Amino acid sequence: AMISADTENQNGAITSVDIQIAHDLSITDTQGSPAITARTTGSGNAGEVQLSSENLTATSSSLDFYFALIDTHTSGSGTAGKVQVTATETIHATGENAGNMYLIDSGMMGENGGHGGAVVVVANRLQLDDADISTGDWIARNKEVDTTGFGGNLTITADTVQLTSTFLTTDGFEGKAGDITITAHDIQLKDTSNLRLSEFGGGGALTINTNSLSLESSFIEAETVDGIGVGLPWTGVTINAEVVTLQNGSVMKSQTFGDGAAGDIRVMATDRMTLSDVGVEVRPSGLFTNSLGDIDVGDQGPAGNIFIETGSLELSGGARIDSSTQTSGKSGYVTILASDGVFISGQRVVPVPEVAIFGLGSSLPSGIFSRTVGSEFCTGPCGDGGNISITTGSLSVTNGAAINSGTTSTGLGGTITVNASKNISISGTLDDGTTPGGVFSQTIGNGPDSGSGGNIALTAGGSFFLQDGATVSASSSGPANAGNITILANDNILVDKASVTAEALQASGGNNTLTANDRIQLIDSTIASSVQGNATTVGGNITLDPDFIILQNSRILAKAGAGQGGNISLIASKAVFADPFSEINATAETGVSGSVTIQSPIQNLSSTITPLPQNTLPVTALYGSRCVAEAGGNFSTFVDSKAGSLAPSPGTFLASPFLPLSNPPHAGTVGKAGTFSEITEKEQAMLPHLASYAPPLLFAQADGMSSACP
């Protein structure tokens, strides 16, 4: 049997259907017909449906894809009926056949302007298996019926919510979507379940309050075309939880296809947030607030911002956080506060099919992205890349994972800022062994108005490690200038089989500044700010400023072709050591060479500095001049003073550069050849123990050369 309380041009009763059962209530369809209806087809508002019981069981075997057990929708100008379902224990609804069973439809159908009705569900346990709820125009649009109203709000309160292959939607595609609010201790979405609000306007909000939120191959979506106003920000998705888990293609997204701003996503996960993939899902797990554009509705909308505050954030298997743009709207900002750490690793098994939005670099790695990639949807200049800010305990980026705010468009690359109270560790490549992981704000646009790369600033309260093929890069391969890179570590900086590059192929390079309190060590690695462009290009400057600088088979390059080489400054308060296989080079092929400045009390460079180009004077003709001395003629002389300076007087020794200037020896005098100044035992203790690094001859007598003249 069917219970019906439909209306047309008159308002329905405030409560049109009221069923209250002390124990169990069971609802099923009758030969494909709804069990309860309170619809409106005219100007009258539909009445409310209230169901209350201990347990509620709802089933349907209908083959109709758009069939609802409880139907209060509007096809007129009146508002659809509200539905309130309450169970002190369990609500369990199941669609048993291939059809798409809706437990509740309180949406709108047609262009008469009627709005969807609200739905309120209260239970101890809510389990929906292929049992959908619609308060908007989703069914109408799938039946190709235009609508103009707003979606109704959906509110769920329970201890446990479990959705399997279930779709909850409040769409208002030609108006405003209704809000979705779910409050529960534990929320699970499985097997392509979806919480969705899509709207032409903006302002609809999806809010989840829970201890634990888990998505397995499922979706939370908030999409807009015009937003709340052209470019005005709004929050699409808000999650308040202790633990948030997204895996195997699970997505939270709040995107724009038009001139309106994509909604922001805000996640508060007081314990941890985990995004992971292990399969070959079409889309990676993650958070997305992209600006995608549509030729019919607009291309000015900026991407939404993403804000995450948690104890620990982990991304793996190709999962990503992405606020990129392919339109004239700018990318969104990504802000992450993770008190314990941020851990990003690995890659997807197969590439992402959305080539356009993921086309800047590889689409395989796990990571955080806020790029501007450009497309036919850019009207005039493309939007700038967004900024990425990470404040955390430790940052680990491994196995080819990436943080990227680069640009392939006319938009500027975004800024990447990381502040870690402990260590920063970046290492590894993708599985191909050649594609580096790391931190990128590159510019690779080729047009004359391409945007310049963004700046990168990485600060570690402990040490900074860059290893095993990884890179930090703000380089430029087009006509736009490279960005600057700043790396600051409270302890040490180790770059091992890796690179830090702000090079430019056609434009000027960026600056590389590395600062550490203790040691900067390069092993089989490169720091480069070189340029290869025309005479107007300038290599970036490179500055290293620790106590110790150690170079092992490594290169520090600020070279130029026709342009000007950059300046290299090595400032080590204690020592600079470099093996003979290392290179420090600021030369220019045809342009102006840069400078190399080394400030350190100890320098053992093993001929690593590439000599700057210079015109030399042939001296072979002067070899015989020394023989003039024996003939009593006038002559010039060269004196080899060994340590690089002249002795105080002929026949005496050079002063040692290692004696403390403030405490010169008192015992002994500068003597004749073959004698040394005496040093007291106390003064001997003041000398540094540097024998293993010192040149083989610390003192040299300024003797004249014996004559080979006949």
Walkthrough of the structure:
The chain has 710 residues and is mostly beta strands. The chain has a domain of 84 residues. The chain has two helices and 48 strands. It has a 29-stranded parallel beta sheet that branches. The protein has a 19-stranded parallel beta sheet, with no helix packed on it. It is elongated and about 95 Å long. The termini are far apart. 55% of the residues are buried. The C terminus is likely disordered.
Key phrases:
710 residues, mainly beta, 29-stranded parallel sheet, 19-stranded parallel sheet, 2 helices, 38% strand, elongated
How do you describe this structure in short?
Helices cover 2% and strands 38% of the residues. The protein has two helices and 48 strands.
Chart the SSEs and their pairings.
Elements (H helix, E strand, L loop, with lengths): L2 E2 L10 E6 L3 E5 L7 E2 L10 E6 L1 E6 L6 E5 L11 E13 L5 E5 L13 E11 L2 E3 L3 H5 L11 E4 L2 E5 L2 E3 L10 E11 L3 E8 L4 E11 L2 E9 L7 E13 L3 E6 L7 E13 L9 E3 L17 E11 L3 E3 L11 E12 L21 E3 L18 E11 L3 E3 L11 E5 L3 E4 L10 E3 L15 E5 L3 E4 L3 E3 L11 E5 L2 E5 L2 E3 L10 E5 L2 E5 L2 E3 L13 E4 L2 E5 L2 E3 L10 E4 L3 E4 L4 E3 L10 E4 L3 E2 L76 H6 L24
Parallel strand pairs: 1-4, 2-5, 3-6, 4-7, 5-8, 6-8, 7-9, 8-10, 9-11, 10-12, 10-13, 11-14, 12-15, 13-15, 14-16, 15-17, 16-18, 17-19, 18-20, 19-21, 20-22, 21-23, 22-24, 23-25, 24-26, 25-27, 26-28, 27-29, 27-30, 28-31, 29-32, 30-33, 31-34, 32-35, 33-36, 34-37, 35-38, 36-39, 37-40, 38-41, ...
